Amino acid sequence: MSTHLLDTSIGRPAAQVPVGLHTVADDGSTRLVGGGVTDNDGRVATLADGALAPGTFRLVYDTVGYFTAVHRKLFYPRIIVEVYLDGARAHYHVPVLASTYSYSTYLGS
């Protein structure tokens, strides 16, 4: 699994943003299973070692430091994206387009 974080308000990748990957159990509890820090291109190429079993996962982008440093404004201290991986793909890529006051995401390739 990989991710990409783009700052759409300035048209640039969001670098040095910590990203945590958590499994989500049926009762809503979570467990950290991977993560990384976005590189200069806003990417974390590998969020976890090995294949991920089908299930629900939560990506947590710790954006407080990034938005405070780059924009001197903060509305989303964290961006949380929850996805269900059905196991139909060999690789899942989750891009996030973010600005100070909005974000969106999609299943990438």
Q: What is the topological layout?
A:
Elements: E1 2-7, E2 12-13, E3 18-24, E4 30-37, E5 43-44, E6 55-62, H1 64-71, E7 78-85, E8 93-99, E9 102-105
Parallel strand pairs: 1-8
Antiparallel strand pairs: 1-2, 1-5, 3-4, 3-6, 6-7, 8-9
Catalytic activity: 5-hydroxyisourate + H2O = 5-hydroxy-2-oxo-4-ureido-2,5-dihydro-1H-imidazole-5-carboxylate + H(+)
Domain Transthyretin/hydroxyisourate hydrolase: 1-108
Subunit structure: Homotetramer.
Question: What's a quick, concise take on this entry?
Answer:
The chain contains one helix and nine strands; from the N terminus they run ββββββαβββ. With 109 residues, the protein is mostly beta strands.
